[in-house]
Amino acid sequence: MKDDAVYRLLDEVDYEFARHGPPEWYPDVPRIPAARYTDQDFFDLEQQAFRKCWVTVGTVHELPEVGSYKVVDRWNGAAVFVVRGEDQQIRAFWNACAHRGGPVVESRHGACGVAERFRCAIHSWTYSLDGELAGVPGRRDFHENLDRCASALRSVRCEVWRGFIFVNLDLQAPSLVDWLGPIAEEATWFDGLRVAGTDSFVLNCNWKLAIEANIEVYHVTTVHPDTVAQTLDYRGSAEELYQGGHSRMIVPSKGYDSEQVRKEAKQDPLDALMGNTNVSYLMFPNHLTPGGGRRDRGYSLTLQSFWPISPNQTLSEWSIMAPDWGDGPVPEHFAKSVKGFSQIMHEDTEYLETVQKAIESGATDGMLTSYHERRVYHHEASIDRLIGIENVPEHLRIPQILPIADANENAVGST
Ligand code: FES
Ligand SMILES: [Fe+2]
User: Fold this and answer.
1) Reported CATH class of domain 3-52+175-396
2) Considering the entire predicted model, what is its pTM?
3) Alpha carbon of 214 to ligand 2 centroid (Å)
4) Which end of the chain is more exposed for a tag (fewer CB within 10 A), N or C?
């Protein structure tokens, strides 16, 4: 992140602490219709749209050697695997044999030897690490044109950004860097992180309820009195909305002292920001990245992902992403933070099933969001743009009235 961007963010935090109401430019937005969290048809539209999104499925550390692979099945049944090829490139394929759809990898993680090849579980067709068809037992029973009809596994778009592996089921999708917009340049501290611990659970609520509970900090004094509220001060939180559905939130630490932070910034602007605030992106549509730390110990973050299962079920998973610690065990500090974050996630999600039931019972007309909660409104409005506004039933549409930062204004390159 560039120095002038850091100073702009420190100004925004000061502004947020000092304001007495929403700024004049902020529109009085309507409620988010309740049925967006319950309607099966709308959920199906979202699911289709999800297949056009770049989503992260891990880091390069998880595929350390040629042939290392990982299966990802987070699209309601569609199973894809990512694999490191002989040329070190990471590729993604559908886990579906070109013959009759059998699985070519069965364990969730593993390593396939170059000579051994991927072997379909049903009739043993084999594939090289770059997905090319390598062997067909009983070849004589197929016509001459077999190679033209079935020559490879179907590939899926796969790109790596700052060590994070992303895939996209849409072959026509824009590049990952274009998709991420300003985040791609700005989030320099994502470089080189690896998973120090991970956990997950299934929530009985809509995936958007789960995300939206985590993209505002209005709730922290009530929901996290003994944890987050002890370390962060929500009154100074500064939010930014980006094109493409992404957004960012900076939350100052408890006892934030603007003068002191600016003194620190003279030495090292990014370190002053990361050491005195929590910086979190929503990488649209379903990843959050709260993080911080100090340069001498390395910056870290928690990658939270929310995967829709049905209108009222969501897989919530999170990984503590720490600077590479080499060959030894996970440093104690990070090992502990896995447990600590699980506690916070329980607090964050404890009431979501109740909220879901309230919506399903018709007990609420929908969600009211304040200026501070505008990332929630932005998330919903961005889903409509992804689906195509004309495809969203009129009674469920979100008016597109929020001002959104221009991507060029926010293109804050790395230093
Ligand atoms: S389905 Fe894979 S070899 Fe037949
Ligand atoms: Fe929270």
Assistant:
1) alpha beta
2) 0.94
3) 5
4) C
